[in-house]
Amino acid sequence: MKKKYIIPVFIPHYGCKNECVFCDQRKISGQTKNIKPADIRKTIEYYLKIFQDERVEKEIAFFGGSFTGIDQTKQEEFLKIANEYIENGKASSVRISTRPDYIDKDILKFLKKYKVKTIELGVQSGNDIVLEKAKRGHDFNSVVKASKLIRRHGFVLGHQMMVGLPDSTKQDEINTAIALTKLKPKIVRIYPVLVLKGTELEKMYETGEYEPLTVEQAVDRVKELYYIFDKRKIKVIRIGLQNTENITNPQNEKSTVIAGPYHPAFGQLVESAMWYDALVSQVKPENVRSKEIEVRVHPENVNNIIGHKKENIKRIKELYDVDIKVIEDFEMKKERLKSKVLSNYSDFLDE
After folding, report:
1. Please, what is the end-to-end C-alpha distance for the chain in angstroms?
2. In 10 A of CB 47, how many CB atoms?
3. Chain segment 153-184, per-residue pLDDT in tens
4. Distance of alpha carbon 20 from its chain centroid, rounded?
5. How would you label 62-72 residue by residue, b for 16+ Cβ within 10 Å and e otherwise?
6. d(CA 216, CA 298)
7. How far are the Cα atoms of 85, 124, 200, 259 from residue 22, in angstroms, in the given order?
8. pLDDT for 15-40, tens place per residue?
9. Angle CA(34)–CA(36)–CA(40) in degrees, nearest 5?
10. DSSP H helical segments within the chain, as ranges?
């Protein structure tokens, strides 16, 4: 996928008339005040100073609320500001996020007028029972209808889903991912559920009605979903919530995270887990006779393949009694690794 700079403009809780059990958008976005046109300009200008490479496309993205649920006059006000930057060549397009039940033909026609290119839908789950438990206020059929309309009108379709919702199982989430691939989104975000202060989920957690996933469980589930999307050439562009002043370590006094699989580098944990799987696929056929195996990877992947605190290397050693030697190789493709047996146990015995 072609490189793109995203200029994030957060519109906390704007437009959403629903109150999902897990949600406090003001805390997720790290903002609590109503956004004004001056705030939008300030944000865009700030990121334009950072993203100075004129060769890279820049997209202004309205995140944090249900954009198409906002009063259309307000939508138009925001989009006109974004379009000023498109017209002067400083940005190329607009991205929004919204709910599937806030999409229809007239809305899409309006968005097309203001150069919106990408629409991300908050899907969360493909299981209607899970959606009802989470008080989403729509069913999966709404996702299907909205997704088809968005693609039919020429927009780039994105989906956002969650793992660890109340009553959701790993199989539910696998089924959701498979169902989403059939709707052919171009991009996907996957978020593990965190228990935030002031949400209904906090009450459910305190009473024992809800038990959040551990970090290990969440990593395992997200990893499996990533494989499903990757196999079908659907780009996973985000794993885990963005860390903010409020979405941070629960031990931090400013944190609004009560419980759940929080980790400052959750996405990296998932990536490392996938590299572990790749390592095992190389080591397992050789482990009966191999003592030491060399693995060549692009330098950018060295930390992930070794794992946090060398966890991947240690696990391989414990399970297969094989030593892994990781070599940096700039000529390797970033998604590949190449292994070679350096020594085996027959050599060791001969010595």
Report:
1. 51
2. 16
3. 999 999 999 999 999 999 999 999 999 999 99
4. 19
5. bbbbbbbbbee
6. 26
7. 35, 11, 7, 12
8. 577 788 998 754 444 443 577 889 99
9. 115
10. 25-29, 37-50, 72-87, 105-113, 128-133, 140-152, 170-182, 200-206, 215-231, 266-283, 302-306, 311-320, 345-350
